Amino acid sequence: MDAESGVERFRSQGKKRKTTRVVGVDLAGRSRRNTGICLLHGMTVASFATVHSDSEILGFIETARPDLVAIDAPLNLPPGRTSLEDRNGKHFRPCDRELLKRGIRFFPITLGPMRALTRRGIRLKEGLLQQGYAVIEIYPGAAQDVWTIVRKQGGLPKLRKGLETLGLKGLAKSMNGDELDAVTGALVGRFYLTGRAEVLGNIDEGAIVIPRPIQFRPSREPLPHTG
User: What is the pTM of this model?
Assistant: First the structure.
């Protein structure tokens, strides 16, 4: 299954379902660091964890049996770049440049620690595709900016509250920043499956999925009596 056809097949299935199952992964560049992971069933956080090894990540996904896996990590090199060690290669993908145009902050994939994250993300994506899973790249910070809620650096209680205002249920006060970012990524995946997201770039060559802004309905309060 190639990346684009697989994602589109699962996306069409998602639109037909009343509920979706999406795993969000806030991936760390190295296994000694924390990776947040969660399963979002519909709009409810069904399970979450902090894991480390690739086998723990894959085990969680196999148990969850999701329609889609949304990973916070670069999943492709810039077009034309042969490796991360290529000093003459491009540093930005078209989707990265689109983030720049929109004023969304991020780290280039060829910068220091991002190299390890990119290697691990690509390896994880390829393994999941071989197992038949649909995979997309997401960026929690971009989604949080679009939804006008704070990033985790602004305080975990505020981030959790912001996610709750979007309609999410099952968020625990004990959740750490990596787990809340995993929840954010899973929600972006749900938005994608239900046709409420935007794809920056091309999924086969490098794309980041971000949500479309939510139009909040004003409350229907009775008008003041003026008679």
Answer: 0.85
